[in-house]
Design brief:
- With about 170 residues, the chain is mainly α.
- Helix content is about 45%, strand content about 5%.
- It has 6 helices and 3 strands; from the N terminus they run H-H-H-H-H-E-E-E-H.
- A 3-stranded antiparallel sheet has the order 1-2-3.
- Helix 5 packs across helix 6.
- The longest helix is centred in the middle third of the chain and has 18 residues.
Length: about 170
């Protein structure tokens, strides 16, 4: 990764747009998912409760996309990403400006910080590719319906080396 890309990554990990989005979704989460007996502790197990809510509330990826930036979908997106941040050491990233040319791709995502790039070498078949896992939490909510009932939110953590056991 060249220096210009590193600078962009630093900007995308620390900017007012990302900070505002995180703050907004954290508040929405507290409104849509009230704390009950410490259920929302950012553990892998709590993703099962989040998944159950999403599967009860929505029946398709299209429904999730229609509410991507609002209410429970935005809040659930934030929570899933925060579990990655807190359990796998990922960091949030989000463009400093909206991508008007491709708004469907203009979403916050989580990835391993650049400082840990050596822990995730590129695949042998694509040595130019950055090997760090990248997860778009909003897309993972859709994937629950696209990949079927055997796909679970907890599975998204298996992308990380040394990921906590997600079988439990």
């Amino acid at each position: 990764m060249d220096e210009q890309q590193q600078d962009q990554e630093r900007e995308w990990a620390n900017n007012p747009r990302l900070d505002a989005w995180i703050s907004e979704q954290r508040a929405a989460f507290n409104a849509h998912f009230p704390l009950e007996a410490d259920d929302w502790d950012f553990s892998i197990e709590s993703l099962d409760r989040l998944e159950a809510f999403i599967r009860r509330r929505f029946s398709s990826c299209e429904e999730i996309k229609a509410e991507r930036d609002s209410g429970p979908v935005g809040a659930a997106t934030w929570y899933l990403g925060e579990v990655h941040v807190r359990t796998a050491g990922a960091q949030w990233q989000y463009g400093t400006e909206p991508d008007l040319a491709a708004p469907e791709y203009d979403q916050p995502y989580v990835t391993i910080p650049y400082e840990r790039i050596d822990e995730y070498p590129p695949a042998d078949d694509d040595p130019a590719q950055d090997g760090r896992p990248l997860t778009v939490p909003g897309d993972e909510l859709c994937a629950l319906f696209l990949r079927g009932p055997d796909h679970h939110l907890r599975d998204t953590l298996t992308r990380y080396h040394g990921a906590p056991d997600t079988d439990g």
